[in-house]
Design a protein that fits this description.
Distance between the termini: 53 Å
CATH superfamily of the largest domain: Methylthiotransferase, N-terminal domain
CATH architecture of the largest domain: 3-Layer(aba) Sandwich
Number of strands: 19
Largest sheet: 6 strands, parallel
Radius of gyration: 23 Å
Number of helices: 14
Helix content: 25-40%
Shape: globular
Strand order of the largest sheet: 2-1-3-4-5-6
Structural class: alpha/beta
Protein backbone atom coordinates (compact mmCIF):
# COMPACT_ATOMS: atom_id res chain seq x y z
CA UNK A 1 0.00 0.00 0.00
CA UNK A 2 3.04 2.31 0.16
CA UNK A 3 2.57 3.38 -3.47
CA UNK A 4 -0.99 4.57 -2.75
CA UNK A 5 0.19 6.43 0.36
CA UNK A 6 2.87 8.13 -1.74
CA UNK A 7 0.33 9.04 -4.43
CA UNK A 8 -1.96 10.57 -1.80
CA UNK A 9 0.98 12.44 -0.29
CA UNK A 10 1.68 14.07 -3.66
CA UNK A 11 -1.99 15.00 -4.05
CA UNK A 12 -2.03 16.54 -0.57
CA UNK A 13 1.16 18.50 -1.24
CA UNK A 14 -0.58 20.09 -4.21
CA UNK A 15 -3.64 20.76 -2.04
CA UNK A 16 -1.46 22.35 0.61
CA UNK A 17 -0.08 24.79 -1.94
CA UNK A 18 -3.63 25.69 -2.97
CA UNK A 19 -5.11 25.88 0.54
CA UNK A 20 -2.19 27.54 2.27
CA UNK A 21 -2.39 24.83 4.97
CA UNK A 22 -2.18 21.07 5.30
CA UNK A 23 -5.32 19.10 4.39
CA UNK A 24 -7.11 18.13 7.60
CA UNK A 25 -8.56 14.84 8.82
CA UNK A 26 -10.62 13.66 11.79
CA UNK A 27 -10.79 10.06 13.05
CA UNK A 28 -13.58 9.11 15.45
CA UNK A 29 -13.50 5.73 17.20
CA UNK A 30 -16.46 3.85 18.67
CA UNK A 31 -16.23 0.64 20.68
CA UNK A 32 -13.52 -1.47 22.24
CA UNK A 33 -9.75 -1.31 22.62
CA UNK A 34 -9.29 -3.32 19.42
CA UNK A 35 -11.04 -0.54 17.54
CA UNK A 36 -8.77 1.98 19.25
CA UNK A 37 -5.76 -0.04 18.09
CA UNK A 38 -7.16 -0.17 14.53
CA UNK A 39 -7.66 3.60 14.60
CA UNK A 40 -4.03 4.08 15.61
CA UNK A 41 -3.04 2.16 12.49
CA UNK A 42 -5.37 4.21 10.30
CA UNK A 43 -4.16 7.49 11.82
CA UNK A 44 -0.57 6.57 11.05
CA UNK A 45 -1.57 5.99 7.42
CA UNK A 46 -3.44 9.29 7.30
CA UNK A 47 -0.47 11.23 8.67
CA UNK A 48 1.83 9.62 6.12
CA UNK A 49 -0.63 10.65 3.40
CA UNK A 50 0.06 14.28 4.31
CA UNK A 51 -3.04 15.03 6.37
CA UNK A 52 -3.01 16.98 9.63
CA UNK A 53 -5.05 15.21 12.31
CA UNK A 54 -7.43 17.52 14.19
CA UNK A 55 -10.09 17.00 16.87
CA UNK A 56 -12.48 19.92 16.35
CA UNK A 57 -15.63 18.62 14.70
CA UNK A 58 -16.98 22.13 14.41
CA UNK A 59 -14.17 22.97 12.02
CA UNK A 60 -15.65 23.40 8.54
CA UNK A 61 -12.36 23.18 6.66
CA UNK A 62 -11.87 19.41 6.74
CA UNK A 63 -10.84 17.17 3.87
CA UNK A 64 -11.37 13.72 5.45
CA UNK A 65 -13.60 12.30 8.20
CA UNK A 66 -13.20 8.64 9.14
CA UNK A 67 -15.58 6.87 11.53
CA UNK A 68 -14.30 3.57 12.97
CA UNK A 69 -17.46 1.87 14.17
CA UNK A 70 -18.72 -0.71 16.67
CA UNK A 71 -21.52 -3.25 16.18
CA UNK A 72 -21.72 -4.82 19.63
CA UNK A 73 -24.79 -2.83 20.69
CA UNK A 74 -27.59 -0.98 18.93
CA UNK A 75 -26.78 2.24 20.75
CA UNK A 76 -23.30 2.34 19.21
CA UNK A 77 -24.76 2.00 15.71
CA UNK A 78 -27.40 4.67 16.37
CA UNK A 79 -24.66 7.07 17.48
CA UNK A 80 -22.88 6.52 14.17
CA UNK A 81 -26.02 7.15 12.12
CA UNK A 82 -26.62 10.30 14.17
CA UNK A 83 -23.07 11.43 13.52
CA UNK A 84 -23.52 10.84 9.80
CA UNK A 85 -26.50 13.22 9.85
CA UNK A 86 -24.25 15.96 11.24
CA UNK A 87 -21.48 15.16 8.80
CA UNK A 88 -23.88 15.41 5.86
CA UNK A 89 -24.28 19.13 6.60
CA UNK A 90 -20.50 19.53 6.46
CA UNK A 91 -20.43 17.65 3.16
CA UNK A 92 -23.09 19.94 1.72
CA UNK A 93 -20.91 22.94 2.56
CA UNK A 94 -17.72 21.29 1.34
CA UNK A 95 -18.20 18.86 -1.59
CA UNK A 96 -14.47 18.04 -1.52
CA UNK A 97 -14.81 16.50 1.95
CA UNK A 98 -14.35 12.71 1.88
CA UNK A 99 -16.34 10.55 4.33
CA UNK A 100 -15.19 7.03 5.22
CA UNK A 101 -16.90 4.45 7.43
CA UNK A 102 -15.06 1.37 8.68
CA UNK A 103 -14.98 -1.17 11.51
CA UNK A 104 -17.34 -3.83 12.82
CA UNK A 105 -20.58 -2.00 12.00
CA UNK A 106 -19.38 -1.40 8.43
CA UNK A 107 -18.57 -5.12 8.01
CA UNK A 108 -22.28 -6.05 8.14
CA UNK A 109 -24.05 -6.41 4.80
CA UNK A 110 -27.30 -4.83 5.98
CA UNK A 111 -25.37 -1.75 7.16
CA UNK A 112 -23.56 -1.48 3.83
CA UNK A 113 -26.94 -1.69 2.07
CA UNK A 114 -28.34 1.04 4.34
CA UNK A 115 -25.39 3.30 3.58
CA UNK A 116 -25.78 2.68 -0.13
CA UNK A 117 -29.51 3.50 -0.09
CA UNK A 118 -29.77 6.30 2.45
CA UNK A 119 -26.29 7.77 2.91
CA UNK A 120 -25.01 8.18 -0.63
CA UNK A 121 -22.75 11.03 0.53
CA UNK A 122 -20.51 8.49 2.33
CA UNK A 123 -17.62 7.93 -0.05
CA UNK A 124 -15.99 4.78 1.32
CA UNK A 125 -17.27 1.85 3.41
CA UNK A 126 -14.77 -0.84 4.37
CA UNK A 127 -14.88 -3.67 6.88
CA UNK A 128 -12.53 -5.20 9.42
CA UNK A 129 -10.64 -7.22 6.80
CA UNK A 130 -9.85 -4.24 4.57
CA UNK A 131 -7.96 -2.05 7.03
CA UNK A 132 -4.71 -2.20 5.06
CA UNK A 133 -6.57 -1.35 1.84
CA UNK A 134 -7.69 2.07 3.05
CA UNK A 135 -4.99 4.01 1.12
CA UNK A 136 -5.98 2.24 -2.11
CA UNK A 137 -9.69 2.82 -1.45
CA UNK A 138 -9.20 6.52 -0.72
CA UNK A 139 -6.99 7.05 -3.77
CA UNK A 140 -9.45 5.23 -6.03
CA UNK A 141 -12.34 7.31 -4.71
CA UNK A 142 -10.41 10.54 -5.27
CA UNK A 143 -9.72 9.54 -8.88
CA UNK A 144 -13.11 8.02 -9.78
CA UNK A 145 -15.34 9.95 -7.34
CA UNK A 146 -17.72 7.00 -6.90
CA UNK A 147 -18.85 5.33 -3.68
CA UNK A 148 -16.70 2.32 -2.78
CA UNK A 149 -17.85 -0.53 -0.52
CA UNK A 150 -15.40 -3.26 0.49
CA UNK A 151 -16.72 -5.65 3.13
CA UNK A 152 -15.41 -8.90 1.71
CA UNK A 153 -14.22 -11.42 4.31
CA UNK A 154 -10.60 -11.85 3.26
CA UNK A 155 -9.99 -14.32 6.09
CA UNK A 156 -11.22 -17.17 3.96
CA UNK A 157 -12.17 -20.67 4.99
CA UNK A 158 -8.80 -21.46 6.56
CA UNK A 159 -8.40 -18.11 8.31
CA UNK A 160 -5.69 -15.63 7.44
CA UNK A 161 -4.66 -12.97 9.92
CA UNK A 162 -5.30 -9.47 8.48
CA UNK A 163 -1.95 -7.78 7.95
CA UNK A 164 -3.15 -4.79 9.90
CA UNK A 165 -2.42 -6.76 13.05
CA UNK A 166 1.14 -7.78 12.22
CA UNK A 167 3.16 -4.58 12.37
CA UNK A 168 3.98 -1.61 14.58
CA UNK A 169 2.80 1.05 12.12
CA UNK A 170 0.64 3.09 14.52
CA UNK A 171 -0.01 6.58 15.80
CA UNK A 172 -0.11 6.16 19.57
CA UNK A 173 -2.00 8.70 21.65
CA UNK A 174 0.06 7.96 24.75
CA UNK A 175 3.83 7.82 24.39
CA UNK A 176 4.39 5.33 27.20
CA UNK A 177 1.50 2.93 26.56
CA UNK A 178 0.66 0.72 23.60
CA UNK A 179 -1.79 -1.97 22.52
CA UNK A 180 -0.56 -5.23 20.99
CA UNK A 181 -3.01 -7.46 19.18
CA UNK A 182 -2.28 -11.14 19.83
CA UNK A 183 -5.37 -12.63 18.18
CA UNK A 184 -7.98 -11.60 15.67
CA UNK A 185 -11.56 -12.88 15.63
CA UNK A 186 -13.36 -15.26 17.97
CA UNK A 187 -14.45 -18.90 18.06
CA UNK A 188 -16.78 -18.71 21.06
CA UNK A 189 -20.02 -17.73 19.30
CA UNK A 190 -21.86 -16.46 22.35
CA UNK A 191 -25.53 -16.28 21.38
CA UNK A 192 -25.76 -12.49 21.79
CA UNK A 193 -22.46 -11.51 20.17
CA UNK A 194 -21.86 -10.26 16.63
CA UNK A 195 -18.04 -10.29 16.87
CA UNK A 196 -17.35 -13.70 15.23
CA UNK A 197 -19.46 -12.62 12.27
CA UNK A 198 -17.73 -9.27 11.73
CA UNK A 199 -14.15 -10.14 12.78
CA UNK A 200 -14.09 -13.78 11.70
CA UNK A 201 -12.78 -16.95 13.31
CA UNK A 202 -9.95 -16.77 15.80
CA UNK A 203 -6.44 -16.50 14.35
CA UNK A 204 -3.33 -16.07 16.51
CA UNK A 205 -0.24 -14.06 15.74
CA UNK A 206 3.11 -15.87 15.86
CA UNK A 207 4.92 -15.58 19.18
CA UNK A 208 8.10 -14.12 17.68
CA UNK A 209 6.09 -11.48 15.82
CA UNK A 210 4.44 -10.36 19.06
CA UNK A 211 7.77 -10.30 20.89
CA UNK A 212 9.38 -8.33 18.06
CA UNK A 213 6.63 -5.74 18.34
CA UNK A 214 7.07 -5.57 22.12
CA UNK A 215 10.82 -5.03 21.73
CA UNK A 216 10.34 -2.28 19.14
CA UNK A 217 7.78 -0.56 21.35
CA UNK A 218 10.18 -0.73 24.31
CA UNK A 219 12.92 0.86 22.18
CA UNK A 220 10.45 3.64 21.38
CA UNK A 221 9.95 4.37 25.08
CA UNK A 222 6.82 2.32 25.80
CA UNK A 223 6.77 0.97 29.36
CA UNK A 224 3.24 -0.51 29.47
CA UNK A 225 1.62 -2.81 26.92
CA UNK A 226 -1.92 -4.16 26.81
CA UNK A 227 -2.40 -7.44 24.95
CA UNK A 228 -5.65 -7.55 23.02
CA UNK A 229 -7.86 -10.37 21.88
CA UNK A 230 -11.50 -11.36 21.97
CA UNK A 231 -10.37 -14.21 24.24
CA UNK A 232 -6.68 -13.87 25.13
CA UNK A 233 -6.77 -17.09 27.19
CA UNK A 234 -7.14 -19.19 24.04
CA UNK A 235 -3.97 -17.81 22.47
CA UNK A 236 -2.12 -20.58 20.61
CA UNK A 237 -5.16 -22.82 20.26
CA UNK A 238 -6.31 -21.76 16.79
CA UNK A 239 -6.29 -24.37 14.05
CA UNK A 240 -3.55 -22.54 12.13
CA UNK A 241 -1.00 -22.60 14.95
CA UNK A 242 2.19 -24.24 13.73
CA UNK A 243 4.03 -26.99 15.54
CA UNK A 244 6.21 -24.47 17.36
CA UNK A 245 3.12 -22.79 18.84
CA UNK A 246 0.70 -25.68 19.21
CA UNK A 247 -0.55 -25.73 22.78
CA UNK A 248 1.34 -22.59 23.75
CA UNK A 249 -0.37 -21.22 26.84
CA UNK A 250 -1.24 -17.57 27.19
CA UNK A 251 0.61 -17.66 30.51
CA UNK A 252 3.82 -18.55 28.65
CA UNK A 253 3.33 -15.58 26.35
CA UNK A 254 3.05 -13.29 29.37
CA UNK A 255 6.32 -14.65 30.74
CA UNK A 256 8.04 -14.06 27.41
CA UNK A 257 6.88 -10.45 27.21
CA UNK A 258 7.84 -9.88 30.84
CA UNK A 259 11.40 -10.73 29.82
CA UNK A 260 11.50 -7.84 27.32
CA UNK A 261 13.82 -5.15 28.64
CA UNK A 262 12.05 -1.82 29.10
CA UNK A 263 8.52 -3.20 29.46
CA UNK A 264 7.47 -2.53 33.06
CA UNK A 265 3.76 -3.36 32.97
CA UNK A 266 1.66 -5.89 31.10
CA UNK A 267 -2.14 -5.79 30.91
CA UNK A 268 -4.49 -7.92 28.83
CA UNK A 269 -8.10 -7.83 27.67
CA UNK A 270 -10.34 -9.90 27.61
CA UNK A 271 -10.38 -13.25 29.43
CA UNK A 272 -13.08 -15.89 29.03
CA UNK A 273 -13.83 -17.78 32.28
CA UNK A 274 -14.01 -21.17 30.55
CA UNK A 275 -10.37 -20.92 29.41
CA UNK A 276 -8.72 -19.30 32.42
CA UNK A 277 -6.03 -21.67 33.66
CA UNK A 278 -4.30 -22.17 36.98
CA UNK A 279 -1.04 -21.40 35.17
CA UNK A 280 -2.37 -17.97 34.24
CA UNK A 281 -3.41 -17.31 37.84
CA UNK A 282 0.09 -18.30 38.96
CA UNK A 283 1.70 -15.88 36.49
CA UNK A 284 -0.51 -13.00 37.63
CA UNK A 285 0.42 -13.78 41.23
CA UNK A 286 4.16 -14.27 40.72
CA UNK A 287 5.23 -12.00 37.85
CA UNK A 288 5.70 -8.39 39.07
CA UNK A 289 5.25 -6.95 35.58
CA UNK A 290 1.80 -8.51 35.09
CA UNK A 291 -0.76 -6.08 36.50
CA UNK A 292 -2.91 -7.18 39.39
CA UNK A 293 -6.14 -6.62 37.53
CA UNK A 294 -8.28 -9.15 35.71
CA UNK A 295 -11.34 -8.43 33.59
CA UNK A 296 -13.46 -11.57 33.72
CA UNK A 297 -16.84 -11.13 31.99
CA UNK A 298 -19.64 -12.89 33.85
CA UNK A 299 -22.55 -11.71 31.65
CA UNK A 300 -25.16 -13.42 33.87
CA UNK A 301 -25.28 -15.15 37.24
CA UNK A 302 -27.94 -17.63 36.15
CA UNK A 303 -26.75 -21.02 34.91
CA UNK A 304 -29.88 -21.31 32.77
CA UNK A 305 -29.20 -17.97 31.09
CA UNK A 306 -25.48 -18.74 30.72
CA UNK A 307 -26.41 -21.97 28.94
CA UNK A 308 -28.66 -20.12 26.49
CA UNK A 309 -25.86 -17.58 26.00
CA UNK A 310 -23.48 -20.44 25.09
CA UNK A 311 -20.99 -19.27 27.73
CA UNK A 312 -20.03 -22.84 28.75
CA UNK A 313 -19.72 -22.37 32.50
CA UNK A 314 -22.17 -22.35 35.40
CA UNK A 315 -22.88 -19.86 38.15
CA UNK A 316 -21.08 -22.06 40.66
CA UNK A 317 -18.04 -22.48 38.40
CA UNK A 318 -17.76 -18.73 37.92
CA UNK A 319 -17.95 -18.02 41.66
CA UNK A 320 -15.39 -20.74 42.41
CA UNK A 321 -13.00 -19.33 39.80
CA UNK A 322 -13.41 -15.73 40.93
CA UNK A 323 -12.82 -16.56 44.59
CA UNK A 324 -9.82 -18.73 43.69
CA UNK A 325 -8.27 -15.80 41.81
CA UNK A 326 -8.87 -13.41 44.70
CA UNK A 327 -7.35 -15.89 47.13
CA UNK A 328 -4.27 -16.55 44.97
CA UNK A 329 -3.66 -12.86 44.20
CA UNK A 330 -4.44 -10.78 47.31
CA UNK A 331 -5.58 -7.28 46.44
CA UNK A 332 -6.32 -8.07 42.79
CA UNK A 333 -9.00 -5.92 41.18
CA UNK A 334 -11.56 -8.18 39.53
CA UNK A 335 -13.83 -6.45 37.03
CA UNK A 336 -16.60 -7.84 34.84
CA UNK A 337 -19.31 -7.40 32.18
CA UNK A 338 -22.98 -7.99 32.99
CA UNK A 339 -25.91 -8.16 30.56
CA UNK A 340 -29.43 -7.52 31.88
CA UNK A 341 -32.55 -8.64 30.04
CA UNK A 342 -31.16 -11.46 27.90
CA UNK A 343 -34.06 -13.32 26.22
CA UNK A 344 -35.80 -15.66 28.64
CA UNK A 345 -34.28 -14.06 31.76
CA UNK A 346 -36.73 -14.41 34.66
CA UNK A 347 -36.86 -12.57 37.97
CA UNK A 348 -35.25 -15.62 39.55
CA UNK A 349 -32.45 -15.59 36.95
CA UNK A 350 -31.79 -11.93 37.67
CA UNK A 351 -31.61 -12.60 41.40
CA UNK A 352 -28.87 -15.13 40.67
CA UNK A 353 -26.90 -12.34 38.99
CA UNK A 354 -27.28 -10.14 42.07
CA UNK A 355 -26.19 -13.08 44.23
CA UNK A 356 -22.92 -13.44 42.29
CA UNK A 357 -22.32 -9.68 42.50
CA UNK A 358 -22.69 -9.80 46.29
CA UNK A 359 -20.45 -12.87 46.68
CA UNK A 360 -17.63 -11.91 44.30
CA UNK A 361 -17.60 -8.17 45.10
CA UNK A 362 -16.27 -6.74 41.85
CA UNK A 363 -13.95 -3.72 41.80
CA UNK A 364 -15.65 -2.48 38.63
CA UNK A 365 -18.22 -3.53 36.06
CA UNK A 366 -19.47 -2.67 32.60
CA UNK A 367 -23.24 -3.13 32.83
CA UNK A 368 -25.43 -3.36 29.75
CA UNK A 369 -29.04 -3.79 28.74
CA UNK A 370 -29.30 -6.64 26.23
CA UNK A 371 -29.13 -5.40 22.67
CA UNK A 372 -30.57 -7.54 19.87
CA UNK A 373 -28.00 -7.98 17.09
CA UNK A 374 -29.16 -9.04 13.64
CA UNK A 375 -27.51 -12.30 12.62
CA UNK A 376 -26.93 -13.66 16.12
CA UNK A 377 -28.89 -16.67 17.49
CA UNK A 378 -30.37 -14.66 20.38
CA UNK A 379 -31.97 -12.18 17.98
CA UNK A 380 -34.39 -14.91 16.88
CA UNK A 381 -35.36 -16.03 20.40
CA UNK A 382 -39.07 -15.47 20.90
CA UNK A 383 -38.95 -14.78 24.64
CA UNK A 384 -37.47 -11.28 24.49
CA UNK A 385 -37.74 -9.49 27.84
CA UNK A 386 -40.04 -6.41 27.83
CA UNK A 387 -38.09 -3.14 27.85
CA UNK A 388 -39.76 -1.84 31.03
CA UNK A 389 -38.82 -5.03 32.92
CA UNK A 390 -35.23 -4.81 31.70
CA UNK A 391 -34.93 -1.15 32.70
CA UNK A 392 -36.25 -1.91 36.19
CA UNK A 393 -33.76 -4.77 36.63
CA UNK A 394 -30.93 -2.64 35.29
CA UNK A 395 -31.66 0.05 37.86
CA UNK A 396 -31.72 -2.54 40.62
CA UNK A 397 -28.38 -3.96 39.46
CA UNK A 398 -26.77 -0.53 39.65
CA UNK A 399 -28.23 0.03 43.12
CA UNK A 400 -26.54 -3.19 44.28
CA UNK A 401 -23.25 -3.15 42.41
CA UNK A 402 -22.24 0.54 42.67
CA UNK A 403 -22.10 0.57 46.50
CA UNK A 404 -19.97 -2.59 46.38
CA UNK A 405 -17.61 -0.99 43.86
CA UNK A 406 -17.35 2.06 46.12
CA UNK A 407 -16.59 -0.10 49.15
CA UNK A 408 -13.89 -1.96 47.22
CA UNK A 409 -12.44 1.33 45.95
CA UNK A 410 -12.47 2.83 49.43
CA UNK A 411 -10.18 0.03 50.65
CA UNK A 412 -7.37 1.76 48.75
CA UNK A 413 -7.64 4.90 50.91
CA UNK A 414 -4.43 5.42 52.85
CA UNK A 415 -2.43 3.19 50.51
CA UNK A 416 0.39 4.40 48.30
CA UNK A 417 -0.09 3.33 44.68
CA UNK A 418 2.39 3.52 41.82
CA UNK A 419 0.67 5.44 39.03
CA UNK A 420 1.70 5.73 35.39
CA UNK A 421 0.60 9.27 34.52
CA UNK A 422 -1.37 9.73 31.29
CA UNK A 423 -2.30 13.41 31.28
CA UNK A 424 -2.83 16.63 33.18
CA UNK A 425 -6.24 18.28 33.57
CA UNK A 426 -6.01 21.72 35.14
CA UNK A 427 -4.10 21.29 38.38
CA UNK A 428 -4.66 17.55 38.56
CA UNK A 429 -2.71 14.69 36.99
CA UNK A 430 -4.43 11.47 35.97
CA UNK A 431 -3.19 7.93 35.50
CA UNK A 432 -3.71 4.29 36.39
CA UNK A 433 -2.30 2.14 39.14
CA UNK A 434 -1.18 -1.45 38.76
CA UNK A 435 -4.70 -2.63 39.69
CA UNK A 436 -6.15 -0.41 36.93
CA UNK A 437 -7.61 2.06 39.44
CA UNK A 438 -7.99 5.53 37.94
CA UNK A 439 -6.13 8.01 40.12
CA UNK A 440 -6.36 11.81 40.14
CA UNK A 441 -3.67 13.56 42.13
CA UNK A 442 -1.77 16.78 42.68
CA UNK A 443 1.94 17.23 42.13
CA UNK A 444 4.32 20.17 42.06
CA UNK A 445 6.33 19.01 39.05
CA UNK A 446 5.35 17.95 35.54
CA UNK A 447 5.15 14.14 35.55
CA UNK A 448 3.15 13.10 32.44
CA UNK A 449 4.54 9.80 31.17
CA UNK A 450 6.27 8.99 34.44
CA UNK A 451 5.64 6.57 37.28
CA UNK A 452 4.65 8.44 40.44
CA UNK A 453 3.96 7.12 43.94
CA UNK A 454 0.61 8.54 45.07
CA UNK A 455 -0.81 8.50 48.60
CA UNK A 456 -4.58 7.93 48.30
CA UNK A 457 -6.55 10.40 50.42
CA UNK A 458 -10.10 10.01 49.08
CA UNK A 459 -12.21 7.46 47.25
CA UNK A 460 -15.03 7.99 44.80
CA UNK A 461 -17.06 5.17 43.28
CA UNK A 462 -15.07 4.97 40.07
CA UNK A 463 -11.77 6.71 40.86
CA UNK A 464 -9.34 7.69 43.59
CA UNK A 465 -7.90 11.02 44.68
CA UNK A 466 -4.45 11.47 46.15
CA UNK A 467 -1.22 13.40 46.50
CA UNK A 468 2.19 12.61 45.03
CA UNK A 469 4.62 11.27 47.59
CA UNK A 470 7.72 13.46 47.81
CA UNK A 471 10.88 11.55 47.10
CA UNK A 472 13.88 11.85 49.43
Amino acid sequence: MDSYINNLLEINRERQAELGRSPRAIVRTFGCQMNVRDSETLEAMIINMGFELINDENETDIELILLNTCAVRENAENRVYGRLGTIKRLKNKNPLLKIALCGCMAQQEHVADTIKRHYAFVDIVFGTFALQKFPKLLYTNLIENEQIIDIKNSQGAEGVLPQAHSHVFTHRHLAKKAFINITHGCDNFCAYCIVPYVRGREVCRPLEEILREARELAKDGVVEVCLLGQNVNSYGNDKNSGAARKGLAFASLLKSIAAVKGIERIRFMTSHPKDLSDELIDVIASEPKVCKHLHLPMQSGSTAVLTRMNRRYTKEQYIELALKIKSAVPGIALTTDIIVGFPGETDADFEHTLDVVRKVRFAGAFTFIYSKREGTPAASYEDQVPANVTRERFGKLLSVINPIIYEETRKRTGNTLRVLVDEKNGDMYKGRADNNALVHFTNTADCVGEFVDVKITQAKTFYLIGEAVKQG
